[in-house]
Amino acid sequence: MKNFFKELFWFIVAIVLLSIIFSSPRFAEGSENPNAKILTPSETGIWVRVVDGDTFTLAGESIRIADIDAPELFSPKCDAEKRLAKLAKARLAQLLGNGTGIALERQAEPDRYGRTLATVLVNGSPIGATLVGEGLAAPWGGKRHGWCYSCP
User: Could you give the CA distance from residue 97 to residue 85 in angstroms, rounded to a whole number?
Assistant: First the structure.
């Protein structure tokens, strides 16, 4: 009976390690090139989860949309910023949709939080520019944008 539990333990360890390897972004991409594009979920089974208006995870990799600043959802400075942050998150989710057609043009270095910085394209269109054009994000100017101009 002792050998059964020992073998079961190593079997579970092997399954966990294989699931980590096969779910890694580099395996999903099929490339060691950091600038390679990630294929769409419909083609690879990759899932997308939106965190806020400029951050999402794709196949477990945290992606920060480069060159934009969206309102903060988790530490807003005022109610107006929080409302706009919710709108930005919902719009990003809408733009990413079910993940079909997502491509990343990664920058060489991650941001200070370890997230991948990338220009994100959906069906060839940069979604950062869409968010800026709709007033749900601002171009990144080296510091955070003030979203509380409408607050007293």
Answer: 18
Residue type, 79: D
Indicate whether this model's pTM tops 0.70: no
Give me the amino acid identity at 84: L
**Would you call 63 helix, strand, or coil by DSSP?**
strand
Q: Please compute the mean of the pLDDT values over residues 106-111 and round it to a whole number.
A: 93
Measured CA distances, 117 to 26, 28, 66, 113 (Å): 16, 18, 5, 10
What is the tens place of the pLDDT at every residue in 13-54?
778 776 776 665 544 444 444 444 444 444 555 678 899 999
DSSP state of 68: E
User: Percent helix, strand and coil across the chain, each rounded to 5?
Assistant: 35, 20, 40
Instruction: Provide the token pair at 61.
Output: 């990799």
Distance, in Å, from the CA atom of 102 to the CA atom of 118, rounded to the nearest integer, reads 12
Structure tokens at 1: 């009976």
The full 3-state SS of 94-141, as one line of letters, equals HHHCCCCCEEEEECCCCCCCCCEEEEEEECCEEHHHHHHHCCCCEECC
